[in-house]
């Protein structure tokens, strides 16, 4: 008698490091003014982390620190277990898509280019979609629909980057447009990216996996 041997297929989930962006015991300061002290959190892959707080509390300063443009006074920031400093940050920024709060200055990205721009400022450049703000003068203020379109363009053209950082992305938008913007960000979360959003918008806070109040 011929025996039939049933082949067993084992489905083993891939082991992934979920600690994509970590802030550990961080103190940040501008001059002598301490804006955040002993701050710790992990922005995991596949999660939306919302940084919130009162105006002037240091939210945008924290974002600049996460991107390596400002040093921490104490503690450390790491990406995938590797220490992020102002010296090593350039390589880590290659992993990031950045959507700035001053999005109005980027409106020319939706226009046909007329001439090459001058050399871009490093702070504003995370990818080709977001050049230096001081040379990015749109002919007219962006409409709120164009703001959503620009965000969608930035995310689509940098789909391979695992970290998304957005500073007040819904601040200028209507309720419907804010939902569209949130949907774009949640799509990034669903793709397994670490999404960090600076926002005081209750809509964003409600859908965040974790909220960091500074």
Task: Explain how this protein is built.
It is built from five helices and nine strands, in the order βββαββαβαβαβαβ. By secondary structure, the chain is α/β, with parallel strands linked by helices. The strands form two sheets. Strands 6-7-8-3-9 form a five-stranded parallel β-sheet, with helices on both faces. Strands 2-1-4-5 form a four-stranded antiparallel β-sheet, with helices on one face. β4 and β5 (82-84) form a beta hairpin. α3 (144-157) runs parallel beside α4 (175-190). The chain is globular and about 40 Å long. The N and C termini lie far apart (73 Å). Mean pLDDT is 81; it is low at 1-17, 115-123 and 125-136.
């Amino acid at each position: 008698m011929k025996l039939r041997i049933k082949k067993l297929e084992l489905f083993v989930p891939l082991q992934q490091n979920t600690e994509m962006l970590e802030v550990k015991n961080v103190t940040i300061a501008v001059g002598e003014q301490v804006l955040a002290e002993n701050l710790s959190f992990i922005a995991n892959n596949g999660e939306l982390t919302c940084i919130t707080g009162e105006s002037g509390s240091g939210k945008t300063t924290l974002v600049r620190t996460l991107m390596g443009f400002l040093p921490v006074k104490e503690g450390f920031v790491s990406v995938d277990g590797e220490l992020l400093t102002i010296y090593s940050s350039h390589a880590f920024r290659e992993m990031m898509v950045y959507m700035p709060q001053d999005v109005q200055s980027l409106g020319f990205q939706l226009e046909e280019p007329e001439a090459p721009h001058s050399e871009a400022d490093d702070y504003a450049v995370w990818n080709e979609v977001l050049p230096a703000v001081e040379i990015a003068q749109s002919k007219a203020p962006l409409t709120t629909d164009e703001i959503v379109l620009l965000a969608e363009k930035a995310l689509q053209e940098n789909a391979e980057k695992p970290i998304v950082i957005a500073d007040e992305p819904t601040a200028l938008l209507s309720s419907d447009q804010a939902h569209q913007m949130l949907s774009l960000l949640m799509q990034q979360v669903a793709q397994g990216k670490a999404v960090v959003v600076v926002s005081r918008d209750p809509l964003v806070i409600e859908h965040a996996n974790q909220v960091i109040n500074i």
